[in-house]
Specification:
Elements lengths: L3 E13 L12 E13 L16 H16 L2 E5 L4 H10 L4 E4 L5 H13 L7 E10 L2 E6 L4
Parallel strand pairs: 1-3, 3-4
Antiparallel strand pairs: 1-2, 2-5, 5-6
Organism: Christiangramia crocea
Pathway: Purine metabolism; 7-cyano-7-deazaguanine biosynthesis
Cofactor: Zn(2+)
Length: 149
């Protein structure tokens, strides 16, 4: 049986700031992110299996990505916990804002690496994460490919 790639797309709104950056993105701002998740595997050949003919049920993939990425990052603000932004993060958190502190600069590049690790942990053993595409704006995105890593 052939390997097939399955892709599901997700959208979420997230704010961030890039500490030490020399452009406008050093300021707190947000993006309407679009995340495309592509997995690869062989379709199920057991005709008795309710998922017969599927690599993975789109609903099952949605549950993984929603719980690990979308539900956590949607309408949150992400800061690098190793910068003075941690003080701003605490102030916002004390005012009821949803804050995520990460141990990396929250660029699209680093976020897509983080997302790949979070998703891979929850995929069934017969399915592999093939690629991720995290679109920050209409014309800017970062991609992660398993074959590159």
């Amino acid at each position: 049986m052939s390997n097939i790639r399955i892709t599901k797309q997700f959208s979420f709104e997230t704010g961030h700031a890039l500490y030490g950056y020399d452009g406008k993105c050093r300021n707190v701002h947000g993006h309407s992110y679009k995340l495309s998740v592509t997995v690869i595997g062989k379709p199920i050949t057991d005709s008795e299996n309710v998922k017969f003919g599927m690599v993975i049920d789109f609903g099952d993939l949605k549950k993984i990505v929603k719980s690990e990425i979308v539900d956590k990052f949607d309408h949150a603000t992400v800061f690098n916990k190793n910068t003075p932004h941690v003080e701003l993060a605490e102030e916002l958190k004390n005012r009821g804002h949803h804050i995520i502190l990460v141990d990396y600069q929250p660029t699209s590049e680093n976020m897509v690496i983080d997302f790949s690790e979070k998703i891979k942990k929850h995929l069934p053993s017969h399915i592999s994460l093939h690629s991720l595409k995290l679109q920050e704006t209409e014309s800017s995105f970062a991609e992660w490919f398993a074959s590159d890593n």
